[in-house]
Amino acid sequence: MALLDVENLKVYYFTREGAVKAADDVSFSVDKDETLGLIGESGCGKTTVVFALLRFVTPPGRIVGGKIVFEGNDIITMSDEEMRHLRGKGISMVFQGAQSALNPVMTIGRQITEGILEHEDVSKEEAWERAEKQLELVGIGSDRIKNYPHEFSGGMKQRAMIAIATACNPGLLILDEPVTGLDVIVQRQLLALINNLRVELRLPIIFITHDLSVIAETCDKVVVMYAGKVVEQASAVSLYENPVHPYSQGLIRSYPSAKGKRKELKSIPGAPPRLVNPPRGCRFHPRCPYAMDICGEEEPAFREKDGHLVACHLIK
Ligand code: SF4
User: Which one of 57, 128, 160, 295 is at 20 to 30 Å from 93 when CA atoms are compared?
Assistant: First the structure.
């Protein structure tokens, strides 16, 4: 049994204009010891999906269908008390732009111990010792435990957020765009830290990003989302080297290669559709260079090609 199974998840936002189908029939799984990359342009539903995993979807949004099973328990039907325990101890998340979520008037040490004391039956002294170890783990150093957030650089704040998120040894860590907005050197340091967490602690991770080269370095497998739908799933290396879905191919062409092979960058023409009224058939068809008549009429089913699961009429 997988650690996390997401089956046909639907998350809609009910607006005056109609239902915004932010996640529509999304399915994927994460195994123990596995790092999953969730990738796509802004607004394609990645963050909606992980918010649903923690039941953070608030009105006018609602989970309207599907299942989210974590360690054998359906998250959608859990009580509020069970959810309180799950958040932080079961599934922990570092939100996008999380550096600004640090409390400016509390030391980093206190911010790490808060979660430990809330979720575990330990003394303050023990929690403090654990906080020191967490700071060592993320490469900040325990001597900074009494520092305030304003004494940290952007990269250190992001490390501190990871220290807080992993303090209770969660079963699954979600990182939402953890390196976006940081300079290249700090990005590389953070990616090395994330790799360390996944290899040494064997911590399962869901890594959200719009940059496939980052996924290729850090993830075991990848789920590509477009306009609220999953369009391709494959191992990270295979998807990076040999993307099958035209949208995945476009995404790869739009980013510099981490291995320095790609010389010319080409953006995908057009923009993702409004999800209140997405295109019929394949949602990518208005932007797809290979679109055929059937693409605007019929939603493509998933088919297997070279170990990839792909939703595209080109795959027979
Ligand atoms: Fe392009 Fe058609 Fe495939 Fe969609 S189904 S990606 S429009 S070829």
Answer: 128
